[in-house]
Each structure stands twice: as C-alpha cells, then as structure tokens.
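Please, structure for the following, as tokens.
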Amino acid sequence: MSKTLQQHCENLGRSIADQFKSYSAGVTAREDSRAFGAMVEKNITSNWTTICRDLKVSPLEIPGRRTIFDCAYSENETTFGLDVKTKDLDSTAYSDGGICAVGNLLKFLANDKGVFLIVEIGHSASAKNKSSRNIDYILVAPFNCLPSDSYRIENLGTGKVRLNHTINEVYDKIEWHRTNESFYELFIALTITHYERVSKDAEKRIESINKFKDNGFERFSFGR
C-alpha cells in the first residue's frame, strides 16, 4: 500500500465519522446499549458505498451474520473486513469484548490473506438531551497489531476470541508495524494454552458424568 496501515485506519475513521456529522445534537438513544449499537452499525452499512467512495476503495457486498466482519472493502486485491464495536462509556456499562471463533479468525487472516479491522465507537449519554447519546470518538485499529495482553480466548468448544481492553484504552500501544508472522507466534501460543486447559477440563467433566452414571444417577456435580 502506498499509505501506511496507521494512515489507512485514520482515513477510514474520519470517513465513518463523516456519516455522523448530521447528528450534531446527539444520536437518538435506544432502550439498551445493544440496540443503540445495532442502530449505529446500520448507519455505517447503509452508507457503506459512500464511505468506500471517499476512501477510493471497492466496497464488497454486506455479508451475512456468519462472517466475522460487518462490512468489507477491497484495495489492491486485499480484503479489509471491519468489525464494528460500540462502547458505552458509562463506567457501570459492561462489555464482554467478544470478537469471533479462533478458527474463523485464522481462516480470514491466513487463508484469505485478509486484514481484520476493529472499528470502535465510544458513546455516552447527552448532558443536554436525555433521549440522545453523543458519539465521543471513532477509532480504527488492525486486530493483529493490538498489544499482546489485549487478547484472550474463552469457551470450552471452538474457542471465542475476546479483547481485554477497548481500542481507546490501548491505542497508544498499538504495534502498527507488527508482521503477520509475529502476530501468529503470540496468538498461536495463546490458543495452544487455551486448548490444553480446556482439554483437561473436558476430561474432568467426562469423569464427573461417568461417576454420576455409576452412582445410579444421583447427586450430580462437575468435579474441579
């Protein structure tokens, strides 16, 4: 690419922000943070052609729900997939940092040679209008360049990739020049540790179920 990855992300963030300029008095609030996030995402996908035209990239068709990204574009034969995340800046708000399954992430990055971008939109309640919320910031960052302690993997099954920190919290620590190989080294180590741990947990659960069966189906509990 003629421009750096950081410049690319900054340009994308500005283009997305332009779609919210008309909401200078605040964006209409919703019954909960999830509904608000869905509305913000809809605004981006509805204006996706305009955003891509501004960036001089080729928009790709809005994908179905089974993909790891919400929208995507192509530049120089590389697919950029965007995962749009909204962050309620209320200190009491909870966010699980969920991204996608380990396998789906690696397939997109390695098999499809894609670039996975996290678009984080921070929002807060409007001080002037209780029925609206303010967009406080829009940040874009490549998933594979985040600080190593940002990643975690949970779930006994396929493994769910989550983030320990918001993009806003770690933006100054992003390793913009990290190579894919360096990312794979640290991420694969994390996944192996996860699967080794859950395999032991699975064995313990099997033992507990067999014990339950042997005891005539009485007093079940998962052993620790």
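The mean pLDDT is 87. The beta strands are 27-28, 58-59, 71-75, 78-88, 98-101, 115-125, 132-142, 151-154, 160-163.
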